[in-house]
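Below is how a single chain appears once it has passed through the pipeline. First comes the sequence as given, then the structure the pipeline wrote out for it. We keep one example in the README because the format questions we get most often are answered faster by looking than by reading.
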Amino acid sequence: MQNFNAERLICKSAARRRPFLAATFVLSALLFFFSFNTFGAARPVTAAGTAGLEGTLYVSFYRPDGKYESNFDGADAKWSIWAFSDGANGRLITDSTADADFGGARVFAVKLSGKEVLEARRGSNKLGIVAVPSYQNGDEAAPLWEHKDIAADRTFYVPLNENNAGRVYIIAGDPTVYFDSAAANAVINGVRYANFDGEGKVSYVIGGEFKAASKVTVTKRTYNPANGEIANETPIINGAAVINKTDSRTASLNHSSFTAANIDLRAVYLLSVDGSAPAAIDKTRLFISPAFQSSQTPAENIKLGAVYTSDSTAFRLWAPTAAYVKLNLYRRGDGGEPYDTRFMTVGANGVMQTTVRGDLDGAYYTYSVCADGTENETIDIYAQSAGVNGKRGMVIDLDKTDPNGWNADLDAARAIRGRQASDARDPVIWEVHVRDFSAHPDSGIKYKGKYLAFTEDNTTLSTDNTVKTGIAHLKELGVTYVHLMPVFDFGSIDEAAMDSADSREFNWGYDPVNYNVPEGGYSTDPYDGRVRVNEFKQMVRALHNADIGVIMDVVYNHTVSLKSAFNASVPGYYYRQAFADGAGAGSFGYPEYAVGINGFVYANATLCGSETASEREMFGRYMKESVKYWATEYHMDGFRFDLMAVHNIGVMNEIRAMLNNDLAADGGAGILMYGEPWAAGGISLPPSANPDYWPANHNSPDSLKALADGIGIFNDVYRNAVRGDNSTGQRGYVNGWNDDERVENLKITVQGTKFSPDAVKIDGAFRAMDTVTYTACHDNRVLLDQLIMANGGKQQAETFRTGGDGAIKRQILLAAGLTLTSRGMILFTAGDEFARTKYGNHDSYSSSDRLNALDYGRKAQFAGIYSRYTELIKLRSRFLGFRVDAVTDDKAVYAGASGDSGSRVLWYQYRGLAADPYYSYLTVVVNPYPYAVTVDAGSAWAGDAQFRVIYDGANPVNFYNSDSADTVSATAQAAGITVAGESVAVLVKYKHG
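Resulting structure:
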């Protein structure tokens, strides 16, 4: 899957602890992000003093089918246990014994290190276990990660006795970890699950086996929403014979009460067999029924969440399956009991609501939602701010959070967006992590790792006051947009521990908790929900004052886990499932080995176990409203969609239309939208003939054509052609692999063309601004490290330490020259302009500041690289042809490869545009060879036009070069132009002659 940009893992924490046993599962070994938010602020523990503390955890793993050895994908495999803990390598346990007291389960002995025992006793770490089949691969056992029993990892605090031994019980398809045998046996011997199909049938599975005279009972329980008490219990089926058996454990029953139109969504339906503990019949399958969609969709003018005024606050939660909902009001964002609790009333179309009189500005709140007989306290998914670590929402007067000049900031945003919409603004995008921007000890910035770091102007390196840092660096560099990696509230860090002396709290943040709340760890006070909002706005205002647009990285494709506010509000609705009857998710299918505790498995195109369902009305609406909220309240100028192919094309197009139309007065048409046109795993949208329900990916030209104008895609074909793909040893055009395929791909993609692997170029008109032209981003290696890796790891000393004129430095300049003279939205990751390195780390999502922080000192060390970036950005800003929007390749852009026999020197030309005040033609020549090459492009040099060289590999940009020696005459054109080795030359035919 070369198109997968491995953020994916994001579900990453455990993935880094697995040895890569076989190339076949390199990608699959990234499956483990689900454990990200479970490790918390683990403190470093040394091996010293842990001798003798070693222990053993016994894991009993039960499969209802009794199959512990099977054939998977042609390989004979047996079920095994993978165990891992924070900061330690994982290990595979394949040997097991039988557990006669737990249904014949297999018992695996997990050896615990002294450090793991010590951390378990301190409560500062968790163990993760994964049930996965493994096969023998030579001398090693190789896990088949794609066949693990559930998508998510099970993580838990290890129970240890005085002998450092413990025991846990797990059941295939059930994410719960059981700590005593009675609870575990009750599950496997009772009703495993039961679910509605929406057409009158209930399917159910028991843990044991049916008897000849087994009886089934179904009871309907209703609650009084005004007080939460049970109002009524009515038998619907009372001790009927079990019929419609599929096997000795599975059966179904039909009843008119069980059709989607007749089911009382707020009631609990309890099923038991032979007097066993009853199980609630799961309603998830109903969510894809027309009856549910028609009856439970609120009108679009119903504003959900906490709607504040100084006189009262209206609270509205969409919870159509809730028996009751309580509103809890708190004075603090953490700790303490609620000072007011009240039941909400049932409104129309699934909405629960209540209004509280008085000014609640600054109060915190949660909902206690009872669904299917279980009550969970949760934050509001529409919360606009929160207390520390996002556990409680905040009622907030947003007007009071506006910094001075915020109204004028909207005018600045409108100006940026307006110039973008009119093609007068060229997107040169600088992708950065908020903490990286300022965290380096020599950055000279006071508010290290904070939003406010962006407000500190005129900062310089603490060791050299001639080197600009922070926002002064951005203005010097000349970028037009800053792309902020996730700044919504995410779950992998402890906000309260961010600034402690021994803090290890770093994460990229692709693990959403509260989509509409700024991350509190980047504020100066994560406990006060107003501070994060105000300081975020200050950051935006400072960037706008520098005439820099602000782009937000949004991750609507999955949540931090299935234990989310979404699932607490409407269990199952917001996530995509594959059901046993074949409904729901499409190509994800329903694998027989995934038992599924509720008769279905969660789709997993994100490889994080919590894939959202954008095609369902209320999540698609949520995405649109969330984007609109950030664009209006925070003046965002763009949105980058993580794993965009997980979303359906229809919702992406609706978001684009919303920006264009609803925000027209604020320049919405100029708000950027782009995303990754791929997923991490198999696309799991249900099959459809309607393009609105196709995944927003680049796997087919039809999909790309269906995406609306103004939705850009990352052009990984361009990336791979320039510097090689992400596989070890792969090279590209600039570093020695300039074969025909790469040259042809570059000839197409330098034009800013949408690209499909199945159809090289999308036929017909294209928009240059609908492609993201890049060579590296935060995923995988930064550009320098990629080139070093592809070069076999050589020249590290030169590149890292001396800044010398080596081959890799020239390759960086060649890549920069190519990228910054190509069309499309240009994106590069922060620090590439001064040869940033992460010392080969390709996935620093949770590494320390020491590795991730931007070292502005490299600007001086690599001044030659930095100056070229600034010059090329300046050149790019001058010429309209780089960013003109609606053109076709036969009108404006030609590209070819020519030169000495057998060479593949690339040239491309932007032809005259009436609107451009400067030039008639602009030609770029790229020579990847270490020697000079003479290029004869024939008629492509546009007849007898007089070209001037305004940039080459040895000289800075000179826009009005009148030196005759640098003028390419018509006669010289016939003979060709000589371009120095490993360099880019830019030639211009000015309109003024």
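Confidence is low (pLDDT under 50) at residues 1-48, 886-892, 962-974.

See the next section for the split statistics.
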